[in-house]
Structure formats: C-alpha cells, structure tokens
Design a protein that fits this description.
Blueprint: H1 4-7, E1 21-25, E2 33-39, E3 44-49, E4 56-57, E5 62-63, E6 71-75, E7 83-85, E8 87-88, E9 96-102, E10 110-118, E11 121-130, E12 135-142, E13 152-157, E14 162-167, H2 177-185, E15 191-197, E16 202-210, E17 213-218, E18 224-229, E19 234-239, E20 252-254, E21 280-284, H3 288-296, E22 305-312, E23 330-338, E24 346-352, E25 357-362, E26 368-372
C-alpha cells in the first residue's frame, strides 16, 4: 500500500501508451470482477465476477447472502469485441475468485481451475471449456478438509491435474473472525502455497510465511513461480524444480500475471536460465483504507487503482507516482493508475502486448478496463 500523501498525487487516469485508449466496457453486464485470464492463442479473455460480492465476501467476513451466484464470461477482444456468458453444466454453489487455465497445445482441451468461495467452504472447482458452445463442463471439486487447502485465492496450473494454489489466510473469517481480522490488518505472514495433484490426492505445502498470499503465476519456462503478498506489498520470486514441483526455500523480493503473448525463445523476455526479464504484470489496491471503505459501500466509494509490469534490471517508471522504489535487481513500470474516479479497485491486469491490449478487473466496480494501443 502507499501512504496518503502519495495517493493524493494520483491523476483521474494515467497510462504510458501514446495514442492509446482506456475504456470501461460491459458495465451493464460485469459487476465486481476478481480475475481475468487471457487465452493468447484465441485472442479471448475469461472473466470471473460475483455480483453478490457486497453480500458475500468470505475473505473480508461478509456473510449476509450467498444466493446470488457468480459467473464466468468470454470476451472476444481480438476479433468481434463481444462478450458472452459461459454456461456451467453443474448447479454448484459458485462464487469465483482467482481463475486460470491449462492446455497442452492450441488444439488440446482447455481446463479451467477456479478458486470457489462457496457457502459450505472454500474449494477449487475444475471445468473443461468448450468455446464453440460457450460451455464450462464441470469436472470435479478439489478440497482436503482444510488441511492444506484452507483459503484458496489464486491458481497456477501445471498440468490437467496439477496446480499451485495460494492460501491467503490461516484463520478464516467464517470460523475465527477476530483472528482473521488480526491476520489481515497486522499483515501477519501466515499464508502459504500448496501444490496439488488431484489424480493422486497429493497435497504438499511448498512455500510458507507469506502475508495474505494472493496472485500466483508460473512462468512459461516453468523455471520460476511468482507469488504476490498483498500484506507486505511485495512479489516473491521462487525458483521451481520441474521434477518435484518443489519451490526454493529462499526467494527474491520485489517491493507487484504473466504476459503469455511473449515468446519464450525471445532473449529480451527470458534469459539463458529461463528467468523472466519482462512481462510480469501485477494489479492491486494502492490504498487499504479506501479499499475497506469500498468493501462496505461499493456504490459510493471509489478506491484507487494501479497496474504495473515488473522487469529485471534497471529502469525508470514514467508514471506521476512511481510504482516502486529503486531496487538493485528489478524495477516496476506503471501501466495504469487512477485515483479511482476513472476505474476503481483494480485487481488483475492481464496483458497481451502483441495485440496491444491490457485488461483490468475491478473487485468492487462495474465493467472491466480495456486499454488498447497500436503495436
């Protein structure tokens, strides 16, 4: 988070793309979106949102009404510019948070993993997507009786049956509300990452001591796993063992999703060891105070938004308010920032640099932000 004097310097809207446009789309359809994932092979995006989030938010301890279900939508941003709802083939209690998909090749089936904060407990729901029929075929629900999958937030798939999942809290608001608030507001490092293989019921904790473990992504080379700590305003970069799926005991830290349109053979994107050089994007909330106010009054309070790209090396952030202090190994390049008047409560920033698009979700806003520029 940033301090209040810095937040006052935010403009209504800023991005670095000369001649680009920043438009809010589908505000009559999308409400309270948590995540967006881009399918670069098809030029479409999958959007998760929950219009009842103001009445049912298991992370923030709001349990008034779980009945309005969440949804998944397909946005064809590259061709038609249209949006259409994905039909779920099972009547599960659906409150989606983080989403991500796995596919072996462009012609293979697309498997979607969803962190689902349903009324009976938080789980990971698994679907196979049929783009032609706009259908999400329900496959299974993954849980382990709150042993290692306690508070799933975001998912990084490894295969059709394997994934990493962040757990943002040790204490749940639905069972231990006071301790959950202490964990949140004092940024206690009690979150973790679990590796799951549901074909063999293997669940293994692979990273610990993370304050509010939030977004997670595995780089396309499979060499690194990056985890966002919302509690410590940082991104942790772990080395990954592709044979065992274990993560390194130590990590590099950047004091913010990955652009999968980038070529893994491009030496400006990955170095010889497979480590990322650019393309790592993060979206988040610059002011925790305003975010909490928006949680309780989403129709009136507009909290600021921020999306940045993390790069290895030295560089300068051109934004009016730089995204991060100068650091020896990494720097942040702001892609969008707003005081909330233009677009509020940003979460995911999904980047397709080859097509010149940046799509941003809003946790407590209507619509998504669609930034486009010429490439």
């Amino acid at each position: 988070m940033i301090d209040m004097p810095t937040k006052r310097l935010f403009l209504r809207e800023w991005h670095p793309f000369d001649g680009g446009s920043a438009d809010i789309r589908f505000s009559d359809t999308i409400k309270y979106s948590e995540d967006i994932v881009i399918d670069n092979d098809r030029g479409i995006a999958i959007i998760s949102f929950d219009p009842g989030r103001s009445e049912w938010n298991t992370v923030m301890g709001i349990f008034r009404d779980p009945n309005p279900k969440g949804s998944l939508y397909i946005y064809d941003y590259a061709a038609t510019g249209t949006i259409k709802k994905l039909v779920l083939t099972d009547t599960i209690d659906f409150h989606p948070v983080g989403i991500n998909f796995f596919r072996n090749s462009p012609q293979s089936k697309t498997r979607l993993f969803v962190a689902n904060h349903q009324r009976t407990g938080t789980t990971v729901a698994v679907f196979d997507i049929d783009y032609d029929l706009y259908q999400a075929k329900y496959i299974t629900t993954v849980f382990d009786n709150n042993e290692t999958i306690v508070s799933p937030n975001s998912i990084a798939p490894v295969s059709y049956t394997q994934f990493y999942v962040t757990n943002d809290h040790h204490y749940l608001a639905r069972t231990r509300p006071l301790l959950s608030k202490i964990e949140t507001y004092f940024s206690m490092p009690w979150g973790w990452v679990t590796f799951v293989d549901f074909s063999s019921t293997e669940h293994q904790i692979v990273a610990t001591n993370i304050s509010f473990a939030n977004g997670i992504v595995m780089t396309p080379t499979g060499k690194e796993v990056i985890v966002a700590s919302s509690g410590h305003d940082a991104v942790y970069i772990y080395q990954r063992d592709s044979e065992t799926n274990s993560l390194s005991g130590t990590h590099e830290t950047v004091h913010v999703n990955f652009d999968h349109s980038l070529d893994i053979s491009d030496p400006t994107v990955f170095d010889a060891d497979g480590r990322f050089l650019r393309g790592l994007t993060v979206g988040g909330h610059p002011s925790i105070i305003k975010l909490v106010q928006a949680v309780h009054n989403p129709e009136s309070v507009k909290a600021p938004s921020w999306v940045a790209e993390i790069r290895r090396g030295a560089g300068v952030d051109p934004a009016p308010c730089p995204a991060a202090p100068q650091q020896p190994k990494f720097y942040a390049r702001t892609l969008y920032q707003s005081n909330g008047e233009h677009f509020s409560t940003s979460t995911t920033g999904a980047l397709d640099s080859k097509r010149g698009r940046l799509l941003v979700a809003s946790l407590y806003g209507k619509g998504i932000l669609d930034i486009s520029w010429k490439v």
